[in-house]
Amino acid sequence: MANSTIPAQVQQSMSNPIMLASLIDNPIMHRIHSTHAPDGCSRHFHLKPLLRFTENILQNALSTTTNTPQEEAQAQLNASLEDYDNYDDFLKPYLAQIIKRTAGKLSSVYDQSAQTATIEVFETLSSFKWETKVVVALAAFSVIYGKFWLVAQPSPTNLLTKSIAILEQLPDMLGVKEPWKPKFKPPTDLIKAILEVAKCIVEFSELPLQYMNLDGRGMPTAAAHIPIAVYWTIYGMAICTKQTMCLPGMGQEDVDAIMADWNQWSLEHKLTQIHNYLKAQLAVCRQHIRERREIETYELIEDLLKTPQIDNMKILKVLIRPKDEQQLPLFDGSNKKRAKLEVLWKRNVLLLISELEVPDQEFSIVEKMYQESRQNPTREESQYEVVWIPVVDGSNQWNENKDRHFETQKAQMKWYSVFHPSLLETAAIKYIKKVWGFNKKPMLVALDPLGRVVNNNTIHMINIWGPTVAFPFHKSREEGLWKEASWDFELLAAPIHPLIIDWITEGKYICLFGGEDIQWIRDFCMLAKAVGRAAGIKLEMLYVGKSNPREKILKNNISIALENLSYVLPSLNVVWLFWARLESMWHSKVQHGETAERDPITQEIMSMLSFDGGNHGWAVFGRGWGEMSQMTKAKGDTILECLAEYQMWKDEVETKGFVAALNDYLIHQLQTPHHCNRLVLPDTTGRTPDRVPCADCGRPMEKYIRYRCCTD
Hints:
This protein is about 55% helix and about 10% strand. The protein has about 700 residues and is α/β, with parallel strands linked by helices. The strands form 2 sheets. Strands 2-1-5-4-3-6-7 form a 7-stranded mixed β-sheet, with no helix packed on it. The chain has a 5-stranded mixed β-sheet with strand order 10-9-8-11-12, sandwiched between helices. Strand 4, helix 15 and strand 5 (about 415-420) form a beta-alpha-beta unit.
């Protein structure tokens, strides 16, 4: 057998992938490049079906010398055969001729060196691109190798192949597979390495070149080494072909010798190095492409939202991008079926943006809103759709647990959802966070029928006024509602308890109070009721707890109801809603540029929120609505002291009225310059102002970062 050696310069270069560039000036590579004259024909070949088909032929043949079950290999081959056979390619007859000629050149290695046969293969494939050369050569090699094992491992019932094996004097031991597996491991490993390099080369050819530049990141570097990789891959095929063709007529000792001869080349190791190098460069290229595409998509989103559109389809399709035209990217919660984006065509759309799980409170708000709209579908205020957009951190790998949470949450929704979070563009998630201000807490972004963003977060409008009044959710609508609003009990609490409006209409005095200390609550309720009776007023009281209602608030509700101290809210979700509405009022005001210094309602909102920042009780008294509204408020110890000293200001009640007299006594007799207000503002939008004035004295409040984990 003729011995083909790898040149020393090549071996040294291949031992270090960084030295691959030195091979470009190698005389062998100059010869290979001189044969390369692509004429454009190869661009018409569909390489992937041919590569899959060829790979499965080789895998089926390799199953003879590996532990791969024959049935599994056969099934894969049948699938790829059907795939390739069904592929309509008018060049298949021409390709068959090229494969036949290439197989002939590879087979000539029996009479000459592997290097010479390799160069002849390149001359035969001179008109093809590099990736086409390697796939066609691999197809030719699969024919040679497949034919050999077809005869070497005949079926017991196939006398024809058995007869040919006898005529070609294939070693008898091939009929007994197990003892021969170790002997065939080197060529088997080499063929696997050849396959991996070939697949990597084809993957490079499929990269979108419009995203690659000459900054040295991956593609330019790898492109220079693709011809080297193609050369060594085809050279490996020539070596395998020579070994295979030498087997017929050999005895066991000859076979042992030829198989042992593989070790002197270590060609499989060198191809593995090439594969690892190209794979690393491929990863760099793909990352670069992802970054370029993300920038391109982000800029497209910006342009689409700045440019007038004829409908909302373009912006929705760039936010939620199906992988192909046939894919249905939405899930319709009403019928539990997938749906096209076109179901949202020219509709008002509310994008419910959240993390993988929507908190129960926000979920119940959207659920109630959506159910009301479906009960009266013909109303103008019901002409909108809701789409859940689950924002998943791309740095964390998707797993079964996340998938289970997502599917459970999606199944609970009656409105539309993205079918899977992977359909959201990375650039869209970046835009949602950076421009729309998403920061973990759920938000509702409103798009009008033309795809314009009319409100970055309409959840505040809906919390404050409800969806019917808030529709069509424009910021101008929100601004108009604030202009009509007054600080009274209708704005503060009407949506949270059905009796509030009745109390206002009947001219009753109302007291809202909160805190956690049940003893303070008992003392306050008893004293407030006694003062109300003494003043001869009709006083209704309602306990609203704290913004983070837990078991302690639930126990307080039970105690208050059993002791008949006052009214309580029907559930902890409604307690949460009272404080969520106050927070929404504050965010809404901030979004419209209002401050406590120049807007009285903003100042009152901040005062209420500061009550929740402490651990003590507080109370608000008032009566009436609109311009006739009267309200006053104080912290726990102050309001208790004021009520206890009722005899000091009772005469003022007859002339000024109860609320005014209470307010005057609080301001002139009990107010001191000493106070400590804490204002806790959840950073729900990423737009919390740096400067917040104190609700009592107007001085800038110190800013602290607070972390809370409250489980009661």
